[in-house]
Amino acid sequence: MTSLLELRNVVRTYAKGGLFGRSARAVDDVSFSVGGSGPEILAIIGESGSGKTTLARMILGTVRASGGSIRFKDMDLADIKGRGQRMDFMRQVQPIFQNPFEAFNPLKRLDRYLFMTARHFAGARDDTAAEAASDAALRKVGLSLAEVKGRFPHEMSGGQLQRVAIARALIASPLLLVADEPVSMVDASLRTAIVNLFRKLRDEMGVSIIYITHDLATAYSISDRVVIMRRGVVVEAGDARATLDNPQHPYSIELKNAVLSPDTGP
Ligand SMILES: Nc1ncnc2c1ncn2[C@@H]1O[C@H](COP(=O)(O)OP(=O)(O)O)[C@@H](O)[C@H]1O
Ligand SMILES: [Mg+2]
Q1: Is the CB of 160 under 6 A from ligand 1?
Q2: Is residue 265 part of a domain?
Q3: H or E stretch including 95?
Q4: Which intervals hold domain ABC transporter (predicted)?
């Protein structure tokens, strides 16, 4: 089975400015694959500034890699051309953002987003079909169209809104979700429900998920494999349980000790 997603020696540099026009590597020679043996959750773990968001944007095709290659199924992202190919890719690889309030226009009713996605990505030809597709997706995240219809983003809690964002992504029947710190702005009490939902999507819908986080505990509980990044570089990668139970790299050990330290609690 070939991988769903394969990154090889991916680099992204940003100009640093300054007198000598030096550039900094936000992502430096990163290689990994997702979904080589069926749907899986891959956690990308690292503290702020380690290149996680840059990596997510390259996978979503919104930032170009400066070097290396990213393949989704049989397509090299650099070769995607034209609206048709672009839309096809966007349907299959859906983003989930950190702050659900930023993902939605505050002046637009939430059902509009759902209906638009149903028309663009699920072939819904009329209102009835768009409503049916939206309701089905909302039910997968524990909501229903009746609870969302006519509502504006600020009328929902952060946790509810993030579930609406996930439902919107699911309407497209994606193969891959790229979730960039999806629970860091959500109340602690709702975090577990959302990460458990990811597990359910993997098991029941066959969706692979790239789960970007700095939270070792949720990564440990839901992911199959982990990639640990520091300053743009992968320092350690492997099976989630094996890696996090027995980290080898000093940085991974440091991350784990920080979680276990009495200062920060379990
Ligand atoms: N658009 C940009 N222009 C210049 N530097 C950037 C840009 N985006 C990210 N960076 C730099 O790249 C590094 C990695 O950032 P980022 O990918 O956001 O990391 P993370 O998501 O892990 O916090 C940081 O040093 C950041 O300042
Ligand atoms: Mg980030």
Answers
A1: no
A2: no
A3: strand 93-96
A4: 5-256
DSSP H helices, 78-157, are: 82-92, 100-103, 110-121, 127-140, 145-148
Position 88 in a domain:
yes
Say which residues have a Cβ less than 8 Å from residue 116's Cβ, sequence separation at least 6: none
Which band of pLDDT confidence, cut at 50, 70 and 90, is reported for residue 19? low
Beta strands in 214-256 (DSSP E): 225-230, 233-239
- Bridge partners of 33, per DSSP, are 6
Give the CATH number of the domain where residue 51 resides. Answer: 3.40.50.300
**Residue ranges with CB less than 5 Å from ion ligand 2:** 52-53
Q: How far is the CA of 167 from the centre of ligand 1 (A)?
A: 28
Measured from the CB, is residue 62 less than 6 Å from ligand 1? no
Residue 266 in any domain: the answer is no
Q: Judging by DSSP bridges, how do beta strands 233-239 and 41-45 pair with one another?
A: unpaired
83-115 residue pLDDT tens: 999 999 999 999 999 999 988 999 999 999 999
Domain range enclosing 215? 5-260
